[in-house]
Amino acid sequence: MEQERTYVCIDLKSFYASVECVARGLDPMVARLVVADPDRSVTTICLAVSPALKALGVRNRCRLFEVPETIDFIVAKPRMRAYMQVSADIYGVYLRYVSPDDIHPYSIDECFIDATAYLGLYDMTAREFASALRDAVRAETGIPATVGIGPNLFLAKVALDISAKHADDGIGELDARRFREQIWPHRPITDIWNIGPGIARRLASYRVYDLGGITEMSPAVLYREFGVNAEYLIDHAWGLEPCTIAEIKAYRPSSTSLMNGQVLPCGYSFDDGLMVLREMCDDTVLDLVEKHLVTDHISLQVMYQRERVAASGVPGEEAAAAEGGEWFENGHGLRRVGGSGSGHGGGGRRIAERTNSFAKLFPLVEALYRETVDPMRLIRKINIGFGNLVDEDFATLDLFADVEAEARERRRQEAVLAVKGKFGKNALVKGTSLKEHAMGRERNLLVGGHRG
User: Fold this and answer.
1) Which of 174, 149, 182, 144 has its CA nearest to residue 54?
2) Inside any domain, residue 246
3) What mean pLDDT is predicted for residues 64-80?
């Protein structure tokens, strides 16, 4: 009979805020600090809020202006490279206790550890082992943490998210019995890992509001409503999770892709959006070349600006009202905002050859953009993707291709990568990146969407 496993899930409390507190010589559990970039405006999102501010009712991921003016607090600009370095240092602490084969980093501030083999090795209970890891992290980095313990990954995660919050020592522990007693009746159900508002609404239509309710539903109804995802709901409702860390590490996807997304600082016109798209395509193609990959599938998604614009005095106002939207002039003609129109454009398509040539890929991406994006609407977000990636040894050979031109492009791409790798991404940029609404140079300074 296989030994029951013990998993530990460790979360670094308000990680970005804690790093900033420690850097200032402050206690993360006492200092009142938010991580946000005030230069972006008071509506910017706070990436992290210290535990002391949370205790005063300030919610995580709030807008900066939502922090009450009556509270004295520090605003720290995000420093993503610093957070990545501290996260790496903490990972190094874990490695002194366990093998990397038994660690699964879930995010920059959270990880799972299979503690099964180490409890006997260190002659510790699961709670003692979890406490030892947490204390070592706090002693060496100053970062506080909470811990969940369970016999599988799901129960360890739920113990962290729900049980640890109510534990005096910050360590939550669940087994099958405690899961049924404490978690089955827990509401809201969205507190449960991997159950979002959409799933919760669909369950509510059956008058099911907690995991206990799911266990009483007919599996046939769940499969009809959720398809194959019903299997996860049923397993988790019963506290089951067959996947192990070893299986996660052994997993290899049948296909891979590269994605690149850009949130624009304001509504961009069709032409300015195309300029940013060109920069993004150039960067992503360089990633393909650096990784020695080729693609035969392109995808594009464009999100339009959602704000309504006053239309007083603009021709077509009556037609706009009839369609539930408003019209204004944006230099390309009359444009409708709001109403029943789709909030996004774009699509995907298979291309005739596998390639990582910008000269071949960008015209196809541009054609997709021109065919699927509304030129009368302002753009706030652009995502592009290259899919079905394989090693460039499998690139499609074309008897009619200009071999010398392709060789020159490849040498140019490799030279650009060499310069950027040695001197930084902004050491070499195209002329279009110097235009007023270009985003490439600013994006090259960001880590995780924020200044490093």
Assistant:
1) 144
2) no
3) 92
